[in-house]
Structure formats: structure tokens, C-alpha cells
Amino acid sequence: MAWKHKHLLGLEELSREDIELILETAKSFKEVSSRDIKKVPALRGKTVVTLFFEASTRTRISFELAAKRLSADTLNIAVNVSSTSKGETLLDTARNIEAMNVDAMVVRHSSSGSVLLLAEGLKCSVVNAGDGCREHPTQALLDMFTLQEKFGRIEGLKVGIIGDILHSRVARSNIWGLTKLGAKVTVCGPATLMPRGIEALGVDVCYDLKKVLKQSDAVIALRLQKERQQDRFLPSMREYSRLFGINQAKLSEGSDHLIVMHPGPTNRGVELSADVADGKQSVILDQVTNGVAVRMAVLYLVLGTKT
Amino acid sequence: MGLLIKNAIIVNADKIWDKSQDILCEDGKITQIASGIASANHEIIDAVGKKVLPGLIDIHTHLRQPGREDKETIETGSRAAVKGGFTSIMCMPNTNPIVDNAMVVEFIIREANRVGLCNVYPIGAITKGQQDGELTDMAELKASGCLAFSDDGKSVLNSRLFRLAMEYAKMLDVLIIEHCQDPLLTAGGVMNEGVVSTRIGLKGDPGIAETVTVARDIEIAHYLGARVHLAHMSLKRSCELIRFAKSQGIKVTAEACPHHFVLTDEACSGFDTSTKVNPPLRSQEDIDAIKEAIADGTIDCIVTDHAPHTKEDKEVGFDGAPFGLIGLETSLGLTITELVHPRIIDLSQMVDRMSRAPARIVGLANKGEIKIGYDADITIIDPDKEWTVTKEGFVSKSKNSPFIGRKLKGFVEYTIFGGKAVYKA
Questions:
Q1: Residue B194's closest chain A neighbor by CA?
Q2: In this predicted complex, what is the ipTM?
Q3: Full-model pTM
Q4: What is the count of residue pairs from A and B with beta carbons less than 8 Å apart?
Q5: How far is A58 from chain B (nearest CA, A)?
Q6: Using one digit for the tens of pLDDT, what is the confidence trace for A209-223?
Q7: Which architecture does CATH list for B3-51+375-394+407-424?
Q8: Number of domains composing chain A
Q9: Chain B: residue whose CA lies nearest to A13
């Protein structure tokens, strides 16, 4: 099947076939990254800009490496949000950059839906690197790629997503992607961080971490932002860790083939204990490796280049 | 020289006349209603085939002047009002400076008179600077022209202060209009909290932010025997609370806006910032309840909450965009299309909800009815004529409407203010 999307804004609007095509394409690009010469000419002459309105290290670097390994020219722009809140609007900023003949813009912004505004207002391809609490599609794609690598399938897998579901774009994108590919998703976290009506997205809600660890093939532990305690969502980080942090003791009661994932960066001792993060059930570094391959596939597909 | 409206089918809140009449307007008043009034050098409007209504009254608009004349002015807002069939509008005090002193009130009235298209009644702030701290000099504000007081845009969060405001307003016989939304519960929400906000990752504003304030205000009104008017009700639970309060004889009145009985929170899923409004668009269940409450009189009147914003202000993404949408030019069409044609209310009830009831709530004498001796504020409509809302069609300075492209039935043909035709389609 052919790819027909100019942008990648989220997984909600993609079909199962679209997602499978990205994962399939990523497989061949993963091989490129393992070569001695880690470069193919697929996007030679194209310009890819990363435009980040929120701090990020690994996602931006991952996109940058992905573009470089496809031979695209890259430019990274980190925008201080306070300078855009007055005067120049988001769209203005992006249009100015686009006017320098950019082919794709990889955007992260703290406001949900902001990438849709850009996709509507720009002529170049827009790739969502995280918009507010809405979607982070490439993170979910690399999670799915990793799951497929480990289990050989996604259909029928039981996946738990643990933590602050309310504010998590990683959770939302994974819910869309995993359920479309036939996985069974359970979300688990404090009731105050569980968004209203989440069941309508086709997931189960469970507040018992042990139960989720027992029934799952894989769990994705989400990063807990420290400000959630200041916002009164949580009594304390200690209490959070007690109920929803994964340590070796809890893990040993879980299913024996369970793998532990995390989008990073990890708060060690909060959502994952150090021994779990570095343990044999953790696939966190595989996720990082796969991120480059998946982002190569995404850039390659949205820019519509034929090999 | 007066104005003679020929062949008028008059629609008042208590009845629709079955035979057409002529209406003579002289010196700003309706002086004669009869069949076959002879023309004696009168300006004539032939209303054959149309419906003739008392001028519509909107007790909830934002005109933005003084302060944000780039969004709207008293002049452009007045033009939008008469295009929408309104002959009287009340403007909210959240301007810059805020309407908390007589000078600003006098400025608005003077400017409205200069424009001269419709009545503009300024609403005074309840608290100085709308800061939830000290009460305004309400007696002085009343003397300079304020019939009602509100901190619209936000609630009076301090319950003691709100009690004192209601007590004081009772003494002065002025109306308190409350924007019911507890900001501690809203906590930065930008749309209704529910499945849609969960799905698209926007911060949700829970309905309880409205209903706990509605319940509080009803209790204070009950305790004081004072009256309170609840602005822009958006929820089924609010309607139920008000219905209960009214059944107990508590002096509560309430209003609803067309967007709250036409659009659900699904409209926000495309991130169109013209769907970002306070209170937020709710569920279908709420829409159904509001329609029912308008029909049974639990909700007394329909208002626009006309809230103009520039394209630049709205083009910053959903989180950053200001709340509000324009409504003066679409309110009648939406009401006729969504309530009258589906027979939820009839035209007479519509005239009550959009003219007689608001006149009664605020205490506007000689308005809200076509009657000899009443003010010659008249709106002539074609309830069956279909039209399409377009961006270019708006005379308001701002175009932030989620209804652009929508086909509506119910069209304003003439608006007559003080016996003069101030708008003709």
C-alpha cells in the first residue's frame, strides 16, 4: 500500500495499514544505522528543521540523526516560549522559517493541537514531535516497533501504561496505535491523573499496579513531572512511588516474560527503580535505538521520496 | 413625520395576531395599532408576508470599548446588534478601564447616543476593578445609568463578598448577574472536561465549576430573599438546580446562549479557536436539557454573550486563545432554526425569551411588547427565509464565529429603533 499523508500529526488519524507501513519501513532503516557507513541518500537536498518550543534532548537529537542518516540538511531551532507569547504568533514564527524553503518541520509545542494549526497554515510537511497532552506519534511508533521486535507481533499483546495518563501525549498516541494494531491496553495510575472517560478510547482502567504487572506482556512507565505534586494531584512523590513505581520486588511478582519500557528521561526511584531501569527486563535503550529508525521512516514517508 | 408599518402580523409574547395590522410610530413611541391607518406623509414600510416583533433585547454582550477598539467598538457593536434584530443591548463591564466608576458609564452612554442605532445599557462591575475585593459605588453607578451589575468574565469567588453585593443590590433594586464558574475548579481548563477533552488532550473544565456556583448563588438568594440572575447556563444540572429553586419561590432568573444549545464539545475537536468559549460547549445531554429549560421557562431568556476577538488573538493555538465567540448577528437565526422550526418553542415564546423576559428581568419599562404607548423598537423578520452565515457578512469588527458556513432559517428584514428604521436588509 502507498503512503498518502503529507504530515504526521498523530496516530488517531492513521489507519492500521499506515502504521504497519511505517513500522515496516523502519525495519529497513534500522539496518542502515547498524552499517559502518550510516547514511543513505534518500533525502539528499531536502531541508529538515526541528522547531522545539519545549525543552527536549533525546527526541530532537533522534530526529536530527534520522534526518542526517537520510542525507537531509538539518537545522535545529529551540524557541524560548516567552519570546513568542508576545507579538509574533506560533504561525508567524513557523512561516518565517518555512520561507527559507524548508521541506519538513519537526515541531514540539506545549499546546495540544498546535501542530494542526501549523499543518493548516504551512506548505511544508509537519511532523509532530509532541503537542501538549495530545499526541507524540513517533514515540508510540518506536514503542510499537520495539514491541514487535521483542514479541514478533502486536496483535493480542497485553500492554499496561503506568502513571500520569491525564497529561501524557505518549499515553494517548500509544492508545491509538496499540489498539489499532490489536493490542489490549490497560491504563494504570492515580485516580487524580486518570482523565475522565478514558474508557471511551478503548482501554481498561486499573488502579492496581501488581495486577497490571501480572497480566501484561509489556508495561510502559510514564515520566512523572515533578510539578504534579505542586499542582496537588499527588500527596507526595514517595506515595506515588509506593503505589505506582515499579521496583524489582513488584516486578518479580509480575509475568515472567514482561518487558519494561519508558519514554525517557527516567526519574529513577520514582516511576522505575534503578535496578529495574537497568535490569534484564528493561528495553529502554532498545527504544532509543529504534527511535532513530522509526523517525527515518517517518521523514522518508512524509517527504514522499522514492528509492 | 412618523413611520407607518403596513400589513404587520404582530408577534407579542402573549399572542400572535391573526389579522394583519398597521402600526404607527411617532416621536419614538407606538401611537396607533389598527387596520388601514391612512398614510399622512409617513415613511412607510410594508411588512406583508413578514412577522413584526418587539425589538430584541440582549442583556449580555461585550462591546470592548473602551480599551480594545481593535476587537469591537460601541459603533460596530451597535451595527452588529441592529443587523441581528436587537434594539437594546447591555454591555458587560470587563473593558479597559473597567466599568466601575461613573465616568466610564457616562462615556459609554454618550458614545452610544452619538452612534444612535440602538439602546446601549452599560452593566457596572460588582467589585472595583473586578478584583473580588471591594464593592463598587453601586448607587452612584445606578444614578449614572447602570441597571445591572456583574463581574462577568469570572465569578465573584469570595462568597461573603457576593452575599454583601446581593444584599446591597437588593436595597438599590438593581440586578446582580453572576458568571457562574469557580476558577479553582476550572483550574485552567479550556474546554469541557469529558471524553472529547480526554481524547484530544486539552485541559478540561468540569461542569461542577458552574454547578457549585449556581447552587451557592441560589442559597444566598434564598437566604437574603434577594434576586440573582445567572449568566450563560450551559449544563443540565444547572437547569435542574434552577428549576428546583424556582419551585421554592427563590428569586432566581437565568439565561442561555445559542451556542450552548447548538454545539457540543465535539466542535472543539478540530481545535477551531472560535469554539473556545466560557463556559465551554458541553454534551448533547446538556443541549437537550437547555432546550427543554428554555421551553418550560426555567431558563428565562436567550442572550448572545457576544465576545469579539481579533484574528491575531485567536490565531495562537487553542490553549493561548481568549474565550468567546460573536453572537449578535446569528442569535435570532440560530434560535429560529434550532428552537422554533423544530417546534420546541413557538414564535411568541421566542419573543418572550428574546424581548419581553429580558426587559422584565432588567426592569426596562415600555419595552418588550408591541403596544400603544410603548417604545417604537420593532424588529421585522422573515422566519422562513434561509441564509448562510459568511465571514464577509459580519458587520462586527471581529469574525470569531463557529457558525460560518452554516445555513440558518430566520432573517432580519428591518430593525426599527425609536420609530426610525436603523437597519434594512
A1: A196
A2: 0.91
A3: 0.94
A4: 67
A5: 23
A6: 999 999 999 999 999
A7: Roll (2.30)
A8: 2
A9: B200
